[in-house]
Specification:
Blueprint: H1 2-21, H2 23-44, H3 56-69, H4 84-96, H5 100-126, H6 128-140, H7 142-147, H8 154-174, H9 177-191, H10 197-210, H11 217-244, H12 256-264, H13 282-297, H14 303-320, H15 322-336, H16 348-351, H17 356-362, H18 367-380, H19 385-404, H20 409-412, H21 416-435, H22 443-455, H23 463-480, H24 484-496, H25 502-514, H26 518-528, H27 535-549, H28 552-565, H29 570-582, H30 586-599, H31 604-616, H32 621-624
Helix pairs in contact: 2-5, 2-6, 3-4, 5-6, 5-8, 5-21, 6-21, 8-9, 9-10, 9-11, 10-11, 10-19, 12-14, 13-14, 15-19, 18-21, 18-22, 23-24, 24-25, 25-26, 25-27, 26-27, 27-28, 27-29, 28-29, 29-30, 29-31, 30-31
Amino acid sequence: MFIICNMDAHASIKFTLKWRQSGFFWTAAIFITAFIVRLIYLLSIRRVPFYIDMIIDSRRYDEWAQAIAAGDWLGSGVFYQAPLYPYFLAGLYSIVGHNLFWARLIQILLGSLSCVLCFQSGRLFFGRAAGIAAGIMLAFYAPAIFFDPLIQKACFDLFFMSAALVLLGSGMKYGAWWTWAAVGFVFGCFTLTRESALLLVLILAGWILLEPRAGGIKRRLSFAGLLLFGAALPLLPVYIRNVRFGSVMSLTTYNVGTSFYIGNNSSATGTYMPLRESRGATEFEETDAGELAMCEAGRSLAPDEISRFWFYKAMREIRAAPVVWLRLLGVKAALSINRIEAIDTDDIYFYELFSAPLRILNSFWNFGLLLPLAVAGIVMTRHRWRNLMPLNLMIAGLLAGLIIFYVVARYRHAMIPLLVVFAGAAVAEAWQALRRRRQRELPGPVLAALIVFILCRLPIASKNEQLATSYFNAAGIHYKRGEYGMAEDFYRKSLELGRLETAGFVNLAVALMNAGELTEARQLLEKALPDAPDKASIFVNLGNIAIREGRTTDALQLCMRARGINRDSPEIENSLGLALALSGKREESIAHFQRAIELKPDYASPRRNLALTLQDTQQTTASLGLSR
């Protein structure tokens, strides 16, 4: 009986070990780990001001998805932004309603699945140990944890790239014809979220045609054809729709020329800059791209013409100063590998303030460590360079896309699965070298990783500048909510971190005014006035403070000075009208209230002030011929 029990225990141990070594065990373990980490993070960021009151692209995607879910499935006009993500959101909203928590939860499920796909792709390309390392690395990778629950399409970047890698590895290993069509289909969907993915389709097609080991020329042509056919399937409906709305050049969107100009004009910095100052939101960019192009061209322009206009404008500026442009390319190359996550919307460093898990992980497991590990993996697997050529080419293609256009964190996020797979290979290869006492294989990869590690830390990007912008944006949200104390604190932090432009001083002063701290608000504006490029906003708010303090003569003079600089501001017209009314010049004030309403029809304050002034002067709206 003792022997039987011992044999059963031995069999049980063998079964347990075998199960733990199986793909199913690691699939489940990686998925559950990744999901728990992301769920903890999601619950920790519910106090972030942008969680509900989203900004820039997140707000745009949410509004677009709500419109689609409400029935506007076709939309109007050629797509300016990639459409797949808002349609995905619309599908969720149609099922669960406009529930941001559920949308974020589904996205972290996708992110967790991406970790499993990286495990599978690492196993296909480099073996089981490398796959396990890759899956675990992505599960805890701080920027992936940050991006997955954002109302942003970056979560799709990881998912589509990871899925494409699994299919590509399967196609290369087993040679099934259908996998090439599937790879193409995934990359086609990827192109509908990140337009640069189309470059990856072309790179892979070219590699297939030039790789003799893929078979004879007919076999290679058929594989390349299947890849292109698969990519065309999701792209064709979007292209047909864009043609219907007047574009024959826009396969997905018509923002390529504008994006090229933003990244390559004579004033470009290497990262995102709006066409007009302080108008970085997507809806502004699309409007500004059209208005500025048409104004300069002197005629109406179709979407394709707008894109061409900006492309040719950028090329003219490049030809006028080629050395400056080459230097800019160098800056973008450095930014593309820098450890700092350059933002144009939500900021990982601001979210860290609300999430200890993200703060801890991002302090070490970030791009600045992932890229050196990936480079070590590339060096350690160089003897298999022909088999790994597609992966290397895709990394090079994505980096080239960043350098050609401009660098922001969410654009380089697409290459993370590729880097994670190579990083997993580095860990597995290093472990094997140490176990088998082949330490002489390690100095080369370690040196390469060390060089890249240093390059990633060049001081060319500032975390504090980004935090200053995030504090500024968060302060605006608190102000709109009527939380003036929080708004004041956040504006102060923004100014302390270096965001010293006029808007920061003005917004802080307004927050102080609403909190009743008039003296400090006035001193702050007077301090900002000498260096402020927009002096009109300073003068009008000094006038508003004077109104509250009862200094009507000073208020009138300050508002008049503001109007002398800017005659098209509804806020200035309203404040001037109020100063005139309080000075007893009610007849004159009426025209300024009317002008404010004309400039901004939904502006409530001048309507209220006008009504009170008319009541005081015993006049009626009808007698003045006002329209409502």
